[in-house]
Amino acid sequence: MTSKPLSTIGFIGTGVMGSSMAGHLLKAGYPLHAYNRTQSKADRLVSQGAIWKDSPANIAKVADIVITIIGFPKDVEAAYLGPDGIIANAKPGGILIDMTTSSPKLALQIAEAASARQLLALDAPVSGGDLGAREARLSIMVGGEEAAFDQVKPIFELMGKNIVYQGPAGSGQHTKMANQIAIASGMLGVCEAVVYAERSGLDATRVLESISSGAAGSWSLSNLAPRIIKGDFEPGFFVKHFIKDMTIALQEADSMGLDFPGLAAAKAAYEKLATEGGEDFGTQGLYKLYQPRD
Amino acid sequence: MTSKPLSTIGFIGTGVMGSSMAGHLLKAGYPLHAYNRTQSKADRLVSQGAIWKDSPANIAKVADIVITIIGFPKDVEAAYLGPDGIIANAKPGGILIDMTTSSPKLALQIAEAASARQLLALDAPVSGGDLGAREARLSIMVGGEEAAFDQVKPIFELMGKNIVYQGPAGSGQHTKMANQIAIASGMLGVCEAVVYAERSGLDATRVLESISSGAAGSWSLSNLAPRIIKGDFEPGFFVKHFIKDMTIALQEADSMGLDFPGLAAAKAAYEKLATEGGEDFGTQGLYKLYQPRD
What we know:
Chain A has about 290 residues and is α/β, with parallel strands linked by helices. Chain A contains 14 helices and nine strands. In chain A, strands 1, 2, 3, 4, 5, 6, 7, 8 and 9 form a nine-stranded mixed β-sheet that branches.
């Protein structure tokens, strides 16, 4: 009995998230070709056995499966849809997986362009942060053809724990938007609760003891409020990236005719924070916006 | 060896919360006198051994420890501060415990009036809802003299699990305000996430599978979003009571010179919901406000 050789993976975007994720695939024995705009960020993967390629097109030409996790929707668009992009250069029958948090509408466009060339595209954004990526326990939210999902599920399982097929193209991105929408207003609540506790003379850490395990409890209250109280505003998740996500979510809500006062208030607050120099804080940096009026 | 006889407790407010809480004290053997504005709501307690009294004054006259858990700050004020109130009629050395969610400023006023009569007052609001009351696992947030807290802690332990002394008079109420502030914006996020998921064509239950256990996770998302999806808007916690709490919290924040855009947006949304007939919904009824624009 001979086992089928493992698919060749092309991995584009070897930042904090991508390099951990690609590392798991390499460790599992997948032949992996890597590209990143800043080449040095791929050095560690290359030392682990990845083969460097100098463009998305050259990744696409050799890969059975292309995975991208890059910055902003405009970067995703350029990587997939340009004449030197992934779709124009992909091997017949290839599967293209965008794991960037990006626009649902762009995911649809990519899926249609891929389909026109007999390629399959999945949108599969993640949550779980750098730690989730390192420990291979990301939540992966997948949209696209279900047959393609079934085919690459073993690859997702090397990177994540909670892998859910959400529906047709764009559904992964829509799910991630719902995730960011829940977080956005929640962060206003967490920061306002901490500020309130401190300003009313309470010991904020002791307040967390009272409120973290009840109806006010949340991941953000348990994980980010203690960092706020310690004055730690280092990024887990960057303010500037969160603003990108909220902008997409608010546009999508608007195009559905929905008013989201919580999301709008959160986006406005984070944009104010960014204007005041906070775009490279972690999302808990929102706390700094709450200065008492004179 | 003879054991000290148990203190006589006067219990004012035998609604859904109070009757469960007083029931635990009765079961533990405490002599308990009860009063409620609507007498019939005390019938069950009386059948369990409580002695009915027909006014707060007559409760105060016989009780070593008075516990109140009643509706609104104006009710608390009337029960404690009037000429026929608890403080004017309490036994020397009595301990007065208000477990209503009420105003921190009123808690201070009560503590001062109590102190002038050599009485001790604690503000000790709770979270955990009717289920937490029934199962004696409330979170109890306590402000006031620490000596008084130590003295009545065994009584708190019959009603709750997470009992934290938060500081001087008013600190219990301030802690509960921080709790409500965290919930308020969080509810906007939960409702907007569910509405977004549904309107973008996703299966909202499957979306919860992807997002509930990660950074978007919260008590509200795990417990109230599934009720929303099922169309269940029955109160756990009433919209009208939540508006009362948010009103107090926003007044307190304002008096500290703080702008809370999340709390303000949540309060405005809930007030709109109440105007449209939703004041007797549970807080998850906020979902009904999100109708698409024409």
